[in-house]
Amino acid sequence: MTQKNVNHMLTLEEFIIRSQNRFDGATGELSQLLRDIGLAAKIVSREVNKAGITNLLGQYGSQNVHGESVKKLDVFADDQIKSALARSGIVSMMISEESNELIRLESSSGNYIVFFDPLDGSSNIDVNVSVGTIFSIYRRKSSRDVPAEESDALQPGDKQSAAGYVLYGSSTMLVYTTGMGVSSFTLDPSIGEFMLSDDDIRIPDFTPQYSINEGYSSGWPGGVRDYIAYIKQVDPETERPYSLRYIGSMVSDLHRILLLGGIFLYPPNVSNPHGKLRLMYECNPMGYIIEQAGGLAFDGSGRILEINPQSIHQTAPVYMGSRSNVEKLMEFLSRSK
Ligand code: AHM
Ligand code: MG
């Protein structure tokens, strides 16, 4: 990873405060919220790292709203993030992948609404493969004098005030954007602080790598099938065939793409005709980060960030990553229409 513009060690807290000070009239609320999420991330990171030892792995015995079995660590992460968000009175409403209904907080006059996926890629937990937490923050639309409503939460992704993820990998990283580029931080466990790694991540324009679950190819739209066939053909001039890299954990797959380039695809398939990944707490926040780093994020017909959401748990097809890779895919999709 590049270390440009980083001339001395900065903690997440220092970085957030410095960024806030650049704005006249900043209330500090969003900064507080990001710091609260950073604290929850450290606690979840600690548990992820010791889960095998403390027997937190395994089924919790219930199913989430999508009919998937809930693991103990999912529950732990969900609880930690909920209590972090409730702490400061800044958040009026939160929406978690693990809860069917939106969660109204006592601080119903809080200015912010937060969507989150507490532990994304959770099928990987049992086998010691990287998982992540994703968050997406909106400022409410209605006045603070009235309780926030679902309509305050259902805003397109380009209205996000901030978005980010935490990757629990060989090290724990927090990556976020407030719309002025993408910054990443690495947790130094010896001092318990997220330290700035890069304050302006730029995704490579093109990399001959792709990331997709090929097992579902029979249900893909024709344009996706044609594109995948194209990138597997041998043509050294256009760096084909591309390499396939698929972890099955969106945060991990997109973190690799953010740093090294390539394209991530989760098209509609037979079991998931509208895509599998959730718009509000998977596609939008990851799409915001990819766009802020100079990449593209499409749903097959337009920008993911321009989708007008109809419900808090809706799904969307996803095609995102390096600009040239995504543009090539879009050629195939528009040709097949
Ligand atoms: P989860 O939120 O229940 O963990 O599901 C989301 C995950 C993504 O992280 C990943 O990209 C995708 O599901 C993998 O799906 P599949 O197993 O169908 O390839
Ligand atoms: Mg998820």
In short:
This protein has an 8-stranded mixed β-sheet with strand order 4-3-5-6-7-8-9-10, sandwiched between helices. It has a 5-stranded mixed β-sheet with strand order 12-11-13-15-14, with helices on both faces.
Give me the secondary-structure topology.
Layout: H1 12-21, H2 29-54, E1 59-63, E2 69-71, H3 72-86, E3 91-96, E4 103-104, E5 112-120, E6 131-139, H4 150-153, E7 160-168, E8 172-177, E9 182-188, E10 193-198, E11 209-211, H5 222-232, E12 243-244, H6 250-260, E13 263-266, H7 279-292, E14 296-298, E15 318-321, H8 323-335
The structure holds 2,5-anhydro-1,6-di-O-phosphono-D-mannitol and magnesium ion.
Residues 68, 97, 117, 120-122, 213, 248-250, 276 line the site of 2,5-anhydro-1,6-di-O-phosphono-D-mannitol.
Which characteristics define this entry?
23% strand, Fructose-1,6-Bisphosphatase, Chain A, domain 1, binds magnesium ion, binds 2,5-anhydro-1,6-di-O-phosphono-D-mannitol, 337 residues, single chain, alpha+beta, D-Maltodextrin-Binding Protein, domain 2, eight-stranded mixed sheet, 2 domains
Notes on the structure:
The chain has 337 residues and is an alpha+beta fold. The protein has two domains: 3-198, 2-Layer Sandwich (Fructose-1,6-Bisphosphatase, Chain A, domain 1); 209-335, D-Maltodextrin-Binding Protein, domain 2, CATH 3.40.190. Helices cover 31% and strands 23% of the residues. The protein is built from eight helices and 15 strands. It has helices spanning 12-21, 29-54, 72-86, 150-153, 222-232, 250-260, 279-292, 323-335; strands at residues 59-63, 69-71, 91-96, 103-104, 112-120, 131-139, 160-168, 172-177, 182-188, 193-198, 209-211, 243-244, 263-266, 296-298, 318-321. A hairpin with a 4-residue loop joins β9 and β10 (193-198). α1 (12-21) runs antiparallel to α2, α2 packs antiparallel against α3 (72-86) and α5 (222-232) crosses α8. It binds 2,5-anhydro-1,6-di-O-phosphono-D-mannitol (AHM) and magnesium ion. Residues 97, 117, 120, 282 line the site of magnesium ion. Residues 68, 97, 117, 120-122, 213, 248-250, 276 line the site of 2,5-anhydro-1,6-di-O-phosphono-D-mannitol (AHM).
